[in-house]
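User: Predict the complex with acetyl coenzyme *A.
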Amino acid sequence: SIDVATFTRQTGYTALDYGFVNTASTKSAITYIDGDAGILRYRGYPIEQLATHSTYLEVAWLLIYGELPTPDELAAFDNRIRRHTLLHEDLKRFFGSLPPTAHPMSVLSAATAALSTYYEDESDPHNPEHVEVNTIRLLAKLPVIAAYAHKKSIGQAFLYPDNGMSFVDNFLKLNFGVLSELYEVNPVVSRALERLLILHEDHEQNASTSTVRLVGSTGANQFSSISAGINALYGPLHGGANEAVLSMLAQIRDSGESVQRFVERVKNKEDGVKLMGFGHRVYKNYDPRAKLVKESADEVLSELGVHDPLLDLAKDLEEIALNDDYFKERRLYPNVDFYTGVMYKAMGFPTRMFTVLFAIGRLPGWIAQWREAIGDPQTKIGRPQQLYIGSPERNYPGV
Ligand code: ACO
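Assistant: Here is the predicted structure with acetyl coenzyme *A placed in the model:
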């Protein structure tokens, strides 16, 4: 047997695989997906069980270290994260140099890249102590940066983290608390947000995770790799879809167009319009995360006493699409993003924060995948081939 590089060199064969539809870039022991059966497992545990019984930090540990933590391990992990939540005061001023109209995703990626400048002496990807402390820093500080991106976008003062609170409660307070006012956490909202974050924690080699691994394969540190992942997540075909779904629903409502007519336009591919929140590269069945989100959406809206016509619109769209041959033939089902936006909106997050919430959810997965790649002796710098289709050799005029 010979390795792929030798085979390519000796035979001259190169696989052309746009979008890497059939090319594995790595072996991984973290997440298992069976897209035809609609199965998702983290380290072997079904997502349904984790979303119901676990916490964000427990799942983060599971993804990163491979096993569920003991109660003592979890308490120590949680405690260490709480003690790393503060941002350098200079970094807080960095937010002021960005325009007030800045999209919170751009703020998050820029501030994450900027975070690395504070730890340059402790960012060797091959030093286990550096890797460990930066894992803690990322988990502790990115939610604070995310909340500050939110506060900046609405012109409110930044709050200091309250390290007496749990991870999710603290995050809610940083986003919705106001200086000098008591902030009371609604436990139903807190649990629903925790569940949403758990559902997003990993999803094997999606575009942003592959980006994190690719950037990491060059020897870049955790901060730089994850900042690149945030940028990859921003696009509307990936994490940006949750924002795009809400814009799509609002547009249908405001235009007065019927749901049926909108679906017809999607099917006719008029102006390239897509049913955002539908379809997935891997799931050719109902996305198991979307099922859980849909259940939570009803629960949270009812707890908050919100009746959002956009949720009704989403349900109508789903029903029409699932019974339509166009979607059936292409095996297009709701993905995780289809119902999350309605929930985030009910919780009070502005639309532009939705993808930021996805990023905070996905953070433990990015960290786990980056660490797995760094620790794998077979990891090489990622460097795809191309098939050159340009001009043959020719001479510069006059030569
Ligand atoms: N609405 C309408 N048609 C669609 C949709 C959609 N949402 N998704 C796919 N199709 C159609 C395509 O037009 C294509 O039709 P054709 O065979 O007539 O040309 C067929 O289904 C196959 O689609 P591809 O684009 O080849 O599928 P691919 O696996 O490359 O794309 C993707 C997957 C990007 C998720 C796509 O389904 C899409 O754009 N969905 C909308 C955006 C979205 O919700 N993204 C979030 C994904 S989940 C996540 O990142 C968390």
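The pocket of acetyl coenzyme *A is lined by residues 19, 237-239, 241, 266, 274-281, 330, 332, 335-337 (CB under 6 Å).
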